[in-house]
Amino acid sequence: ASPAAASPAAASPQPLSADKSESCGAWAASGECEANSGFMLRECETSCAARVRDMKTVSRIAACAAWKLSGACGASAAFMARVCSGTCDGAAAPAPADPPAGGVAQVHADDLSRQQGTAAGEAGEGGEGEPAEAEGGAAAQLGEGSYRPGPYQLDDGTALDEQGFQALAKSKAGVMVNFFAPWCFWSQKLVPAWEAVGRRLHARAYSQSFAFVRVDCTSAKGRDLCRSHSIHAFPTVRTYRGSVHAFEPYEYGREENVIWLHMVKIAAEVVVQRMHDVPAAEREGFAEQITHISADLKAAMERRREGLDEDWSEDALGPEEEVAEDRELLAQIDDAASSILAAKGVDISHILRHAREAGSEGAEARAVRDASSDHVLALLADGAKQPSPLDEDGSPLEMWEEEAGHEGCNLFGYVEVSRAPGTIHLAPHSSRHSFDFSHVNTSHHIDHLSFGLELGAIERRGLPPDVRKHLLSLDGRAFTAATAHLTQEHHVNIVPTRYQPAGSVAHVETYQFTATSHARTKDTLPSLLISYDVSPIQVNIAERRQPTSELVLSFCAIIGGVVAVFGIIDGMLYTGSAVVRQKLSAGKLH
Fold first, then answer.
1. Which parts of the sequence belong to the Thioredoxin domain (predicted)?
2. Which of 183, 264, 512, 541 would disulfide-bridge 499, Cβ 3.0–4.6 Å?
3. How far apart are CA 406 and CA 14, in angstroms?
4. Which residues contact 36 (CB under 8 A, 6 or more apart)?
């Protein structure tokens, strides 16, 4: 039905149509009346009418407002006039498009804004002179506001240089930036989700305070910018809060709704914090932004709690863990968007102005405050601070500081290997990143490297000095990569050693090793290699104590040997001298 033809029908209610499918009751119970309003109100009017009568007042008004936005005032005039009387004004919304053949149109609540953002971009590029109603769709859903987004333009990532990026970070409460390389497979794979989130953000009022940009690290401007921020892997996604010197790395899933969820949570914190930094008289200008954030946060977190938009990244929390981590947020955010929509004529600035004056907001404003997101509304109170996230040991987590430098890593651990030649390969690795080889520096310092079970200090002191020297051949040595693309390798020859102290039946098993180091340049990812080879020959060292009797016997043997030697020498001298005397006496020696 066209809008013109729908208005009379809305004014003169007709009997509701019966459900056209046996599944309508189950669909309505699962929330499809609100999520897929265009289809459900044409096929399942009776079930949706029964469902909306069971809703709370604020939820009913919110659902009616969402149906109005989707065009239900024109497409299901009888339903809207009977069940949602007062929601549709004289200008009925256009009818929604027919669902795709073969089933229910899967258009969820939080995806509706994405469609509106896409329509806004198409409207800006398309017909001239036509009102861009789609561009203000999000604002219309979340409340009557003044924000009207212009045509969406895809960011190609080549516009920002270092100076421009610093200016952007200072002017915005927060900036989420994607450092990418066009040749990188993972960067290419992220483009659709990143563009979709950018379109959704473009339709929100808080896009005035939160930027969502890309930087091409292969462009003339982006190359220097990426180098100054030590970007070595692509894509690298970071969030900056008012400064380029501190950032938070994004290490979650790269699906559209997962990125959207984390972006909205960060935007809620930075926008409210920015609001605290301005004089109280100027805070009313943030009302529309806070309204949009509260609704988006509620919708995104509700989907997450229901197990939708699963984050499959390695370090991601599961739905139950995330609910536990953000329990205050998740427990009280359920009706944030509904309550704000329900508060017709209640300006959010009332909350901003009287947040700490109990009972001064009026009944309607108090209802908004009680039902809305505590995560957002608690931040609205003057002086309220978002608690810092805590580490496992209870200490607050801090943002990474660029100036302090966070290059490299500390590696500690044990590796169990068979007694056969092998290699320990240390190199940067990520299942969803590509690396710039020229920026991978393999300089390293070896604090400790040993093989076999770690010996205690007493056991080490008991070993012979030559053995101790070869237990820690590489400890304390530093190796510097003077050129790019440099792979460094340590070749280790390991000799199993068994030492048995004197007077003890126990023995010490250890491994001596010698190491030779060298480096080579390759056009591959630089790495650090520790190749080892275990000798098939074992060195057995047994210490024995000599008995005193053996010492005395050895001493006597030595003395006896000395006496015997001197006796032989004396005999030789005596015999020689006797011969000489005989010859002298015979006159034969001249």
1. 126-269
2. 541
3. 68
4. 99, 104, 105, 106, 107
How many CB atoms within 10 Å of residue 174?
A: 24
As a whole number of angstroms, the distance between CA 430 and CA 102 comes to 40
In this predicted structure, the answer to whether residue 378 has a pLDDT above a threshold of 80 is: no
> d(Cα 460, Cα 122) in Å, to the nearest integer?
75
Please answer whether residues 230 and 183 qualify as being in contact, where contact means their C-beta atoms are separated by less than 8 angstroms. Answer: no
Burial label, 156 (beta-carbon count in 10 A; 0-12, 13-18, 19+): exposed
**Collapsed DSSP state (helix, strand, coil) of residue 179:** strand
397 with 144: CB under 8 angstroms? no
User: Strand ranges (DSSP E) for 171-266?
Assistant: 174-180, 210-216, 233-234, 236-240, 246-249
For 275, the 3-state DSSP assignment is: helix
Q: What are the phi and psi torsion angles at 517 (to 5°)?
A: -120, 145
Highest mean pLDDT (candidates 47-51, 120-124, 285-289)? 47-51
Which pair of structure tokens corresponds to residue 437?
């080889």
- Confidence band of 329 (pLDDT split at 50, 70, 90): very low
Q: What pLDDT was estimated at residue 513?
A: 94
- Where is average pLDDT lowest: 106-110, 229-233, 320-324, 393-397? 106-110
Catalogue the long-range contacts made by 240-244 (C-beta closer than 8 Å, 24 or more residues apart). 240/169, 240/174, 240/175, 240/177, 241/173, 241/174, 241/270, 241/273, 241/399, 242/169, 242/170, 242/172, 242/173, 242/174, 242/270, 242/274, 243/169, 243/170, 244/165, 244/166, 244/169, 244/402
Q: What does DSSP assign to residue 152?
A: -
Angle formed by the axes of helices 162-171 and 220-228, nearest 10°:
70
Whether the CB-CB separation of 380 and 355 falls below 8 Å is answered with yes
Single-letter residue type at 210 = F
356's tokens: 């700490």
pTM over 0.70: no
